[in-house]
Amino acid sequence: MGVHMRSDGPVLDGRGVHILGQASRDIEREIAVFAEDQVQVRLARVLKNPTGYYQSQIRRHQVGNYWQVDDSRVAYGPWLESGKNRHRTRFKGYFTFRRAAQITNRRASAIADRVLRRYIGRLG
User: Fold this and answer.
1) Is residue 2 within 8 Å of residue 114, measured between CB atoms?
2) Are 80 and 67 in contact (CB under 8 A)?
3) How many domains does the chain have?
4) Closest CA to 112 of 120, 121, 100
5) Residue 1, in any domain of the structure
6) Sign of the C-alpha dihedral, residues 62, 66, 69, 70?
7) Are strands 59-63 and 66-70 parallel, antiparallel or unpaired?
8) Backbone phi, then psi, for 70, in 5-degree steps?
């Protein structure tokens, strides 16, 4: 009985590193897209008479090697997020980014699994 072993393919010839790097970048981008969507969904639920301006300022962008979702530094953004007046108002939008981050953190593994499945076949 003899054994024949192949010693080529993406894992051994260096392409695997490139493939996994691309997968990692796609995972991070998909998680950022999900986070941005969560902010928009929450704002659509809580804003009673939206002008569209604040929602139009929500964006995702890369900062170095990381993705960030923010409100483009809208002047009243910190007030909306802080909830310092939550006992005096009925506004339900306080903590929108914090809540979106919590949901995103809970879903990040599932998003990563879904994206990674697209790359697994390339490693074989």
Assistant:
1) no
2) no
3) 1
4) 120
5) no
6) negative
7) antiparallel
8) -150, 180
59-103 pLDDT, tens digit each? 999 999 899 999 999 998 887 787 665 555 556 667 899 999 999
Q: Give the residue numbers spanning the domain of 22.
A: 11-123
Determine which helix (DSSP H) or strand (DSSP E) holds 76, and give its type and residue range: none
The pTM of the full predicted model, rounded to 2 decimals, is 0.80
- Integer distance in angstroms from the first to the last C-alpha of the chain? 25
Q: d(Cα 76, Cα 58) in Å, to the nearest integer?
A: 13
- Is 90 within a domain? yes
Token pair 């699994």 is found at 113
Pure H helices in the chain: 10-13, 15-46, 53-56, 77-82, 96-120
